[in-house]
Amino acid sequence: MKEGVLKKNSKKVDILALHGFWGRGSQWKNLLSSFSFWAPDLFTFDSPWGPQRFQNMKDWAKSWNQWVRQEVGVGVELWGYSLGGRLALHAFLLEPELYRSLVLLSAHPGGELDVQARKSWDEKWSQDFLQISWEELFQKWNGQNLFKHDSLPPRFFEGMSREALSQAFLKWSPRNHSFSLEDLKTFRNRIFWVCGGKDFKYKSLYQRLRAQGRVQNLCEVPTCGHRLIQAQPQDFWAAFEVCRLEHCSVK
Questions:
Q1: Staple 83 to which of 7, 21, 100, 251, CB 3.0 to 4.6 Å?
Q2: Beta carbons of 22 and 74 less than 8 angstroms apart
């Protein structure tokens, strides 16, 4: 199926899924192979969903929701991993009636950021993705401390737009969220936050948000780091189903 195009009257889609930075929609097959899901590419040259085509995350979310309403319909579940989770949050909070629920894997909701430090970090990486060779970028990006408990991702070089990847740091940074953390409270019973047990940065962030009453459904996958999209399916679902059951018991 062509990325960005979902034909009406095609097989019913249960889940729409958004991948992370420098990823591809096909990565979701690892966790969602038992479901009817659709996951577009965000950073390929021919993607209609890349950051270079939109002003900001809210602008992206408006177009996405319009497409969902026209081509998929109301009641689908929305998933997002890392950067894709930020986009999913915007889409959900903009039109919560469109979605049955929202599942966020290692996604930063903003709020707890040194904005100036993050701006400098974003701008440096944005330039790097325009100037440095793919292989050097791959080594540098995956050498970050955040990924120390993760295996390497696929080398997605061919077909990737450097412009799109570069623009993502400027337009889709968590410092640019158009909502506040308080907005999360309204829909906390419909949002599932999933983190890796070895991802201490996001684990502690989510625990603080839960203590503040902004997060209700928090799931930890003990064997995983940040890259939950690459988790062993049996480990992920064993943990996530417990979270689902707990949610059902308190509804």
A1: 21
A2: no
Please count the helices (runs of H) and the strands (runs of E) in the chain.
9, 6
3-class state of residue 177 by DSSP: coil
**CA 9, CA 14: separation in Å to the nearest integer?**
14
Whole-structure pTM value:
0.94
Buried b (16+ CB within 10 A) or exposed e, 125-139: bbebbeebeeeebbe
CA–CA distance, 94 with 86 (Å, rounded to integer):
12
Between 57-71 and 83-94, two packed helices, what is the crossing angle to 10 degrees?
70
pLDDT 10s digits, 118-155:
999 999 999 999 999 999 999 999 999 999 999 999 99
CA–CA distance, 30 with 26 (Å, rounded to integer):
8
Beta strands in the chain (DSSP E): 15-18, 37-38, 76-81, 99-105, 191-196, 217-221
| H or E element that contains 69 | helix 57-71
- What is the DSSP pairing of strand 76-81 with strand 37-38? unpaired
Q: Which domains does the chain have, with CATH numbers?
A: 15-250 (3.40.50.1820)
**Which backbone phi and psi does 191 adopt, to 5 degrees?**
-115, 130
Which residue stretches of the chain have pLDDT < 70? 1-11, 248-251
DSSP code for 63:
H
Provide the pLDDT for residue 65.
Answer: 99
pLDDT (tens digit per residue) in 176-188: 999 999 999 999 9
SS3 of residue 77 by DSSP:
strand
State both tokens at 249.
């018991």
* 3-state DSSP assignment of residue 122: helix
